[in-house]
């Protein structure tokens, strides 16, 4: 393909990650809105051919649960420009912030989870790729209320996600115990991250936050853990019992959390990777029963409509 700088009109900044910004752009010849991400590559670590091979895999990904990849081009100064599907409703971390003191509806969480697990299963089953960076900002929602994965680790170089460096600037960490300990990384590490994310979205709390501080330390806060807190946190993930929402009370509704959901989170957050289920197994879980046949689609669509309305008002 032949995407190039001069064909792209910059519309607005969608967000800045740890390594650069993502722009909403309009491709004039194709008359198509896209999201443009710039990633720098380490010229010492990667050869051009490896990058090209990896870009080809991204190109071949075709799934309703994966953000569509339109193409990429190299710039001279060790940067790759990636163009992908623009998702109207943005990433899940932003949705969580918009809700501020409301919980995600259970139907939305189910569809979200089903989409993440289906996406993970697709990437691994079809392309032998592990995502490696599941977190709320890498799950995007379209205007139709579909959830899609982006920024998967085709190569560590391309996703830019040096996990440890990430945690030094982020609010919380989604890294699994085995990853922190430097053990083999498998698709089940992504299941851990998915469980942690669900915990946060369902409760509005980070499982690692200080209970005294309440929801102010969760995903919906801008409180950043400094470097001095990170090592302590990583140690806690490895040594402490997994967090659980079972029999706990929702701070928003004051009701006990859905027990099927809690048990599902517990299954994702099994510390021993060998005993943790795979995405494929989890897709059969009672909690996700009937998501596949579209039971919640209408509800989620309506919810997406509401979100879109609020996004328009905020602008
Ligand atoms: P991070 O994922 O760590 O936040 P990124 O650089 O990957 O950093 O993305 C920055 C932000 O841009 C994301 O948080 C997300 O809100 C937004 N974003 C990224 N890709 C898209 C996309 N395809 N469509 C809409 N918004 C996007
Ligand atoms: Mg990202």
From TrEMBL:
Keywords in alphabetical order: ATP-binding, Kinase, Nucleotide-binding, Serine/threonine-protein kinase, Transferase
Annotated ATP binding sites: 37
Domain of life: Eukaryota
Residues of the full protein shown: 146 to 460 of 460
UniProt domain Protein kinase: residue ranges: 8-288
Protein name: Protein kinase domain-containing protein
Family: Belongs to the protein kinase superfamily. STE Ser/Thr protein kinase family. MAP kinase kinase subfamily.
GO biological process: one example: MAPK cascade
């Amino acid at each position: 393909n032949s995407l190039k700088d001069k064909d792209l009109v910059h519309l607005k900044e969608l967000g800045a990650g740890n390594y650069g910004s993502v722009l909403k752009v309009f491709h004039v010849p194709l008359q198509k809105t896209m999201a443009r991400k710039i990633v720098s590559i380490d010229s010492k670590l990667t050869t051009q051919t490896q990058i090209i091979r990896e870009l080809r895999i991204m190109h071949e990904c075709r799934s309703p649960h994966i953000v569509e990849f339109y193409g990429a081009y190299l710039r001279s100064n060790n940067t790759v420009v990636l163009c992908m599907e623009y998702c109207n409703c943005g990433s899940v971390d932003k949705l969580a912030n918009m809700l501020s003191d409301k919980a995600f509806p259970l139907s939305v969480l189910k569809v979200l989870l089903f989409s993440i697990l289906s996406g993970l299963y697709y990437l691994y089953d079809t392309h032998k790729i592990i995502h490696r960076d599941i977190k709320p900002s890498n799950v995007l929602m379209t205007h139709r209320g579909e959830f899609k994965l982006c920024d998967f680790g085709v190569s560590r170089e391309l996703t830019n996600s040096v996990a440890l460096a990430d945690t030094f600037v982020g609010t919380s960490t989604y890294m699994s115990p085995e990853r922190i300990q430097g053990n083999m990384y498998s698709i089940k590490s992504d299941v851990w991250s998915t469980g942690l994310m669900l915990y946060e979205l369902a409760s509005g709390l980070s499982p690692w936050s200080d209970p005294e501080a309440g929801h102010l330390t969760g995903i919906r806060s801008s409180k950043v853990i400094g470097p001095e807190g990170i090592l302590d946190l990583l140690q806690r993930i490895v040594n402490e019992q997994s967090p659980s929402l079972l029999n706990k009370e929702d701070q928003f509704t004051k009701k006990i959390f859905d027990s099927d959901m809690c048990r599902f989170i517990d299954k994702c957050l099994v510390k021993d990777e060998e005993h943790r289920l795979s995405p494929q197994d989890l897709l059969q879980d009672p909690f996700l029963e009937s998501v596949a046949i579209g039971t919640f689609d209408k509800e989620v669509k309506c919810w997406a409509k509401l979100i879109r309305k609020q996004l328009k008002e905020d602008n």
